[in-house]
Amino acid sequence: MVKGISIIIIDKNGVMKSQSLKEYNEEELYKKCGFKKPDGFSKQTEWGVKLDGIKYSVAVHAKTDGKSGTENKYDFPPPVDTVLFFGSCALVASFKKDDGIWEKVSLSIEQWEKMYEKLFGGFEDLASTALEDEEEEDELMNIPKDKKTKHGYLKDGFVVDSNSDEDEEYDSYDDDSNTELDDTDNTDENDIGDIIIEDMGSELSEEDYVTDDESEDKN
Predict the structure, then answer these.
(1) Assign residue 131 a region: left if phi > 0, alpha if psi is -120 to 50, beta otherwise?
(2) How far apart are CA 130 and CA 201, in angstroms?
(3) What's the CA angle centered on 105, arms 100 and 106, to 5 degrees?
(4) Which residues are CB-contacts of 197 (< 8 A; sequence separation ≥ 6)?
(5) Concatenated DSSP letters of 171-205
(6) Is-contact 63 43, C-beta < 8 A?
(7) Contacts of 101 (CB under 8 A, 6+ apart)
(8) CA nearest neighbour of 72 among 127, 121, 12
(9) Tens-digit pLDDT profile for residues 173-198
């Protein structure tokens, strides 16, 4: 039985707190998480992580069965990142001694947060990344002016100056074409309207005009 170590309790809301134990007894660990019975409470997984040159193993003890509404909201690292725990969970650490034997050791919240980052592959420091972007040399600074557009972009098959002769010629042609199309469209719409009215009138006249012979045939 190990004496005088600290473990971490993570409640169902995902809040961590450090708890000191006079004596560590794994069989009594469920009580530290607020459970009355040990049923279903067990070690779910262990993570191996190296911190400050020391090899650690951190085990999570929890329940995978429970009442609705008591689900633990903490995001645990893989391979239990998709496993649903209920109620409070306990984190217990061990370290590997020089003789190769693993021994229980105190685990602080600060230590676990560093381990947590390593287990997730590290988090990107946005402030550091922004500074690197500012210090990065502009690749277009060393390009001659005649190779760039007036807006500073590199000339290629897709980017050209907007005031080129080809653009002006295309714009002028486009304007003339639009004018002609507008006049044509107006004429077509009037013609079509006349045709529709004439057709409707002829259809009505045919339906209204019924001879006496046709009426007798229908009867």
Answers:
(1) alpha
(2) 74
(3) 160
(4) none
(5) HHHHHHHHHHHHHHHHHHHHHHHHHHHHHHHHHHH
(6) no
(7) none
(8) 12
(9) 444 444 444 444 544 544 444 444 44
Residue 47's alpha-carbon distances to 81, 158, 177, in angstroms, are 12, 52, 72
Q: Residue 86 is encoded by which pair of tokens?
A: 């209920």
| Closest CA relative to residue 104, chosen from 112, 117, 95, 113 | 95
**What values do phi and psi take at 66, rounded to 5?**
180, 180
CB count in 10 Å sphere of residue 62: 27
3-state secondary structure of 211: coil
Question: What confidence tier does 140 reach under pLDDT thresholds 50, 70, 90?
Answer: low
Q: Are 149 and 155 in contact (CB under 8 A)?
A: yes
